[in-house]
Design goal:
This protein has 10 helices and 13 strands. By secondary structure, it is α/β, with parallel strands linked by helices. A 3-stranded parallel β-sheet has the order 3-4-5, with helices on one face. The protein has a 3-stranded antiparallel β-sheet with strand order 6-9-10.
């Protein structure tokens, strides 16, 4: 949903090229269906060059979502330069709330994947609106943030990114929490590695927290990073890979004694959704930051849910 937007169309094309799905429904508002059709024609031309057969179905009919394994929601007001993700909370919540209800009605067995910002808040909105088990309502969380941090360390020390194992949890926003205490490079804990190599860790973390704004200020929107990260999540679920990725999921005490809020946490992903939230060790600083993120996201979520109830 939101297939004609920058992220939606790029995810569709990236996923089609991965050749792991048989059909992608390009759901759009009625006034945007022609654009979705144009996108599908353009994608077909590109896919033909790689001998990939993937059915692309442009539509605005919720009935076409029937039998969907995953429904991705990217629809919403895009973030502009100077805006933070929380500025988008209420208007986007109304969109996500409506779509989640329709998904529950027309594709009751699907997994809902949320990319609309603020993604942690929207994950809870979709969970409440759909009535689904929390294992089947997942936000993209800190998956992209984790990939970014991995890339930053890799480039900083000129080492293959496969040697870097790091993770970011918490809010997908200003209150993200890089797990530096458990980061390793070539199997060596980061705290020992920095003694031998000049790594400006605080600068990298600051860059990570501002990555989205930097890209938006220079080109108007983030595009390739989010699209590939989302496609990676979908492929992981579809292929039942059981990889551990950092996604937003509703917490009920599994990590940091945090309850009743969706945050980015490491989770095993399968074709059924979140198979398990992975318990992790944090040092005192990281745990405090994680709980602070939980408090801030929960406050915004509660305000949004209250406003939605009043709006109805």
């Amino acid at each position: 949903m939101g297939s004609t937007g920058v992220i939606g169309k790029n995810v569709a094309f990236t996923l089609a090229r991965a050749d792991t799905v048989d059909e992608i429904v390009l759901f759009a508002r009625p006034e945007s269906v022609d654009k979705a059709k144009g996108e599908s024609f353009d994608m077909y031309d590109a896919l033909a060059a790689e001998d990939i057969d993937c059915l692309l179905t442009p539509t605005s009919d919720f009935e076409d979502l029937k039998y969907s394994a995953i429904v991705l929601i990217t629809a919403g007001i895009p973030r502009e330069e100077g805006m933070n993700r929380r500025d988008l909370a209420l208007p986007n919540a109304r969109i996500v709330d409506n779509y989640a209800r329709e998904i529950a009605k027309h594709a009751p067995e699907a997994i809902i994947l949320i990319a609309t910002n603020p993604v942690d808040v929207m994950t809870t909105v979709a969970l409440k609106a759909s009535g689904f088990d929390k294992k089947r309502v997942i936000g993209i969380g800190n998956h992209l943030d984790s990939l970014r941090l991995k890339a930053y360390f890799s480039r900083q020390i000129n080492i293959n990114s496969s040697e870097v194992h790091t993770r970011v949890i918490g809010e997908h926003g200003d209150h993200m929490v890089p797990l530096l205490s458990s980061t390793t490079i070539g199997g060596i804990p980061l705290k020992y590695f920095v003694k031998a190599v000049d790594i400006e860790v605080p600068r990298l973390v600051n860059r990570l927290k501002n990555a989205g704004n930097i890209i938006i200020s220079k080109k108007g929107a983030t595009e390739y990073g989010p699209s590939y990260a989302i496609s990676n999540l979908i492929s992981t679920i579809i292929t039942d890979s059981h990889k551990i990725l950092t996604v937003s999921n509703y917490l009920e005490g599994e990590i940091g004694d945090v309850y009743d809020v969706s945050l980015g946490v490491p989770a095993v992903l399968s074709k059924k959704g979140v198979a398990m939230i992975v318990p992790i060790h944090m040092n005192d600083f990281e745990l405090n930051e994680f709980r602070q993120a939980a408090s801030i996201v929960k406050e915004t979520t509660d305000e949004v849910l209250q406003s939605l109830n009043e709006f109805e």
